[in-house]
């Protein structure tokens, strides 16, 4: 999504180049629909975000926001599984460990594929900040 510009046109945010860019953008968009979380995000400094302090605010967002985040996480896990399956099919090696492949995706907690928890937000933030440090 873009940000509104002074004359009403939208400016597109640049692609981050991350393979989970769409997931990241969707999570941010959903979190920003919660007034309390949006205020915390706007007042937080970069160290609060990186340290995981902001992730703990996830427990205070509305049920609707949590439900939407859970749905986004399930979609992302399904997308990653499809990528893994495509990789496995291309290699034709059935001896690959599905869980070991999931571990390489550091932007979400693969051990809990159904719900979006503070740990998921923390992992997403750390994955993005690691990429840009």
Quick structural gist:
The chain is mainly α.
Structure description:
The chain has one domain. The protein starts with a strand and ends with a helix. With 133 residues, the protein is mostly helical. It has helices at residues 21-31, 35-43, 46-51, 63-91, 98-103, 118-131; strands at 2-4, 10-12. Strand 1 and strand 2 form a beta hairpin. The model is unreliable at 1-11 (pLDDT under 50). It has a two-stranded antiparallel ribbon. It has 6 helices and 2 strands, in the order ββαααααα. Keywords: Cytoplasm, Golgi apparatus, Membrane, Phosphoprotein, Repeat, Secreted, Signal.
User: Stretches where pLDDT falls below 50 for ≥5 residues?
Assistant: 1-11
Shape descriptor reads: globular
Query: Can you count the helices?
Result: 6
Tell me the major beta sheet: 2 strands, antiparallel
Percent helix, as a range, is: 55-70%
Q: Secondary-structure element sequence? A: EEHHHHHH
Mean pLDDT over the full residue set: 80
Distance between the termini: 25 Å
In order across it, which strands form the biggest sheet? Answer: 1-2
Helix-strand blueprint:
Elements: E1 2-4, E2 10-12, H1 21-31, H2 35-43, H3 46-51, H4 63-91, H5 98-103, H6 118-131
Antiparallel strand pairs: 1-2
Pfam families: NUCB1_N
Keywords: Cytoplasm, Golgi apparatus, Membrane, Phosphoprotein, Repeat, Secreted, Signal
InterPro entries: NUCB1_N, Nucleobindin
Describe the structure using short key phrases:
56% helix; 6 helices; mainly alpha; 133 residues
